[in-house]
Design brief:
Layout: H1 2-17, E1 19-21, H2 29-32, H3 37-42, E2 51-60, E3 64-65, E4 68-69, E5 73-74, E6 76-79, H4 87-94, E7 99-104, E8 113-114, H5 117-126, E9 131-143, E10 147-148, E11 153-155, E12 163-176, E13 182-195, H6 202-235
Parallel strand pairs: 2-7, 2-9, 5-8
Antiparallel strand pairs: 1-11, 2-6, 3-4, 9-10, 9-12, 12-13
Length: about 240
């Protein structure tokens, strides 16, 4: 009997000591865009239709989550594992008007040190892409009393029994591979909220994070479709 009680106490203690590490941050797309003002005014759209589109997800340098990790150092990293994206996501982009093909940017094509979108354009050029869709996901956690920052280890047993929120933002831009001309940008957000006492395990928090990020990403695809329709209308005739 004493052994059973001791085992139960140890199990309770271990459960109380379990923890969750919040993911790394996204990256401010403006911070990695080529910033020379005079050069920005000189850039012109050079897309050729039907266009080939390269796609890449970027994040802060050293990004980490339970389902993904960043490649590359410097100002930012790229994420090549598809934890929120699906084959249907690429197919959806491929069904946009006057798109010839869609291809993800491989880590094999980018340098280890990533400093600006020029590094990504160089990789996209290897794919013979005309335009590059760059997007990032930034996810934050908070309760009514606590803000949880990136890469923060949280003891699950100490989360208060109040409403907890996972807030994900998907920001994106479409860039001309040849010239660096920015055709447009957009941003969407998604929120998952529930009682934080449900977050008794890493898996529960992780599932809430992935749901929020997937929703933000899918809504972002809708904004990409709208932006692309405008690009085709403005530049397609030429």
């Amino acid at each position: 009997m004493r052994s059973l009680v001791l085992a139960a106490c140890c199990a309770a203690l271990l459960a109380g000591c379990s923890s969750y590490r919040t993911p790394g941050t996204g990256v401010a797309l403006g911070a990695i865009t080529e910033t020379d003002i005079a050069a920005a005014f000189q850039r012109e759209p050079a897309v050729q239709f039907p266009a080939r589109m390269a796609v890449t997800r970027v994040a802060g340098s050293g990004y980490w989550s339970r389902s993904n990790s960043g490649y590359g150092g410097g100002a930012f990293s790229i994420l090549t594992a598809r934890d929120i994206e699906t084959e249907e996501s690429l197919a959806r982009l491929g069904r946009m008007p006057r798109i010839a093909a869609v291809a993800p940017v491989s880590r094999l094509l980018v340098p280890v040190q990533l400093e600006s979108t020029r590094d990504l354009r160089t990789a996209a050029a290897q794919l013979r892409a005309d335009v590059l869709l760059i997007y990032t996901i930034d996810t934050r956690f908070r309760t009514e009393t606590t803000e949880l920052g990136p890469l923060q280890t949280v003891a699950l047993g100490f989360l208060p029994s109040k409403k907890a929120v996972v807030h994900s933002t998907c920001a994106f831009m479409i860039v001309d591979v040849r010239t660096g001309f920015v055709y447009g940008t957009g941003e969407t957000t998604a929120t998952e909220d529930q009682r934080s006492n449900i977050w008794g395990a890493e898996s529960a928090i992780e599932e809430a994070r992935l749901r929020a990020e997937r929703r933000a990403f899918e809504e972002g695809l809708g904004e990409v479709e709208t932006l692309w329709a405008g690009i085709v209308a403005q530049h397609g005739a030429a």
